[in-house]
Design brief:
Layout: E1 13-14, E2 22-25, H1 33-42, E3 47-50, H2 61-66, E4 68-71, H3 74-82, E5 97-100, H4 106-111, H5 128-138, H6 140-150, H7 152-162, E6 170-173, H8 180-191, H9 196-204, H10 206-209, H11 214-224, H12 236-250, H13 253-259, H14 264-274, H15 278-289
Parallel strand pairs: 2-6, 3-5, 3-6, 4-5
Antiparallel strand pairs: 1-2
Length: 291
């Protein structure tokens, strides 16, 4: 499943070599009426998870009319996790939701002020651009490792939501669909049993996927946020390094997710919920060919 079926959503594809009820993309703000109809009616997408911060969001005219925007804060996610009520904020008779979930934890910004990053001690009083420039000094690989260390509540919530049959098929996205979405996609694919090679292949596919919006993303990263050119890339080694870090620190992605609170039984439930069997996959392909 590629972005060819869509007019104005870049970097769009189906996870797990087309065998999962999960899709990924860049920002969907410019989706046309036809695009939104395709997401809703052809793919049957019930839940769109947005990993961006509130200040990154844009106007979504057609999307807004079809998918109800729901915003949830990190402290609320933490409370729901502690009370075992994660996911209950989504009303069951609300069939199409665009959820502003977030991904970058307050723990991440605290991490940036640790002693080993003294150049960021004053970051809380700096402009967002200066903060991003400081983050750039540590590089893309380190940012991914920091996300793994600090975004567990968001990751747990995402996986719990995707384990609920009421919430799939689903689409996950951020801005380019490369970093936050890339990590989320890698964890999903690894959790349900796909090889590191497949995970890395999918991450690398973003190089081609963002071409329609590359100049815009480049301007946003380089000129607005002051990020280095490295932050525009999706090199195989970047994801390989992230997966190796998870293995080194936790033993495996599965063990890491258990430490996030997403246990083995829940991981199996996720797999059963999102993986498409061969007959289902053929039926889905037949439906798409009729469009």
């Amino acid at each position: 499943m590629s972005s060819k079926a869509l007019e104005n959503i870049a970097n769009f594809r189906q996870l797990c070599l087309g065998t999962a009820k999960i899709y990924r993309s860049s920002f969907p703000e410019r989706a046309t009426e036809k695009d939104v109809k395709y997401l809703k009616e052809t793919l049957g997408i019930k839940l769109i998870i947005d990993f961006r911060e509130p200040n990154e969001e844009g106007d979504t005219p057609y999307l807004r009319d079809t998918y109800k925007r729901v915003v949830v804060r990190e402290v609320e996610l933490e409370n729901m996790k502690a009370n075992c009520t994660t996911g209950q904020f989504l009303i069951k008779d609300m069939p199409h939701v665009h959820l502003a979930l977030g991904f970058v934890s307050k723990k991440y910004y605290r991490l940036l002020t640790d002693d080993h990053r003294k150049d960021l001690v004053e970051s809380c009083s700096q402009t967002p651009k200066n903060i991003m420039q400081n983050i750039a000094k540590w590089g893309l690989k380190q940012m991914y490792k920091d996300f793994i260390d600090t975004s567990q509540t968001f990751i747990y919530t995402m996986l719990k939501l995707l384990s609920d049959p009421n919430n799939v098929p689903a689409l996950i996205h951020c801005t380019a669909g490369k970093d936050r979405t890339g990590i989320a996609s890698a964890l999903i694919q690894s959790c349900v049993g796909f090889s590191k090679e497949c995970v890395i292949d999918d991450y690398e596919a973003t190089t081609e996927g963002i071409k329609p919006i590359y100049d815009e993303i480049r301007k946003h990263y380089n000129e607005v946020q002051g990020m280095a050119e490295e932050f525009l890339t999706s090199e195989r080694e970047t994801m390989a390094s992230t997966l190796a870090y998870i293995d080194e620190m936790h033993g495996s992605v599965q063990e890491y997710l258990i430490k996030c609170g997403f246990n083995s039984q829940e991981q199996e439930k996720l797999k059963r919920n999102i993986i498409i069997t061969k007959p289902q996959q053929q039926q889905q392909q037949d439906q798409q060919q009729c469009m």
